[in-house]
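TICKET #2291
ISSUE: user wants both folds in one file
ATTACHMENT 1:
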Amino acid sequence: MRYTYYPQGTCSSQIDIEMTDDGIINDVQFTGGCHGNLQGISTLVRGMKADEVIGKLQGIRCGYKGTSCPDQLAIALHQAIHQNR
């Protein structure tokens, strides 16, 4: 399954997710944002179950913002999972 999400309140403008039907993340690509950090996050979550990633990243804030790129990834994964059910 492929899913594209457009984050709100972050420097990244798009998140592209590829995962299996059983929720294993194959790839995550961010457009914009802090390239090195987002490359690291993408590498770390590869091979993980989406539910586990959501549990770890949900609610992380970036400075004064009410969200962050990791939090937006958690939201994107949640939407992708529930769209596929």
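ATTACHMENT 2:
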Amino acid sequence: MTVGADLFTLAEKLNLKNFTESIDLNTKLVYIPDVNRPALQLNGFYEHFEANRVQIIGMVEHAYLEQIDEEERYKQYDKLLSYPIPAVIFCRGFEPEEHFLKTAEQNGVPVLGTDRNTSEFEAELISTLSLELAPTTGLHGVLVDVYGEGLLITGESGIGKSEAALELIRRGHRLVADDTVEIKRTSQNTLLGCAPMTTKHLIELRGIGIIDVKSLFGVECVKDVQRIDLVIKLEEWKKGTEYDRLGLQEEYMDILDVPVVCHSLPIRPGRNLAVICETAAVNHRQKKMGYNAAEELYRRVQENIKNHTGE
């Protein structure tokens, strides 16, 4: 099922003026994260017209409409607004004519306005729509910003995810979400995580209860949104199980069809989870910068073997 972004929320976020107050913006949805400037349509060319996009009237469209006669202008208004357009937005403080508003209301097309520059507003509108319409999922886990890397800690309930996050917070890192992480795919390879409003800035610690991280540790210890760069999967240590000790081959976790590097971390008494998570984050960052310690070790071993063989 396709979920749309409601126009009322968009209008509030972008501070838009509503010229058609008789139309309830809560009932109007936008499904396409892109926009169209109908310069060609106002000139009568409707082949390949993207009527399902938000239409933006800027300087070019407004200047063209001002130079044509009233009869032709009204004809173009009637034609344009006969399509099931999600909304028409006037930029640069331009205001629609009475005939435009009347026709729009008759056809149920919302008309909005902004004082902002057309190009600047268009870019922000596309960005906002892309975020609102992004594929979304929820995962059980903890998301922490560690040295700028988004670390998603997963594992079975009670294994110590929240405790690890709390220790990371005490070490100067920032909490994004605990228990449930809402994840959006904002581009082909980008995942953004945040907390549901009900649990924002809160952590549940068994035996203690709910604590407010923002109140206890300060605003510098929380963050609203974070890109997910790495997954740490906590699991019980099982004797006899082989665990990766070199890291030559990356493992991945699929989230919304985006592969994210995933490390399985066996838990046993005495292991400092916070230090290990910090190290994993820094090591991942180092790999993105082009240096892989495991590959360097392999190179040294191969070179050593070659030298001994040569002797």
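RESOLUTION: both attachments delivered.
EXTRA DETAIL ON ATTACHMENT 2: The chain has a mean pLDDT of 89.
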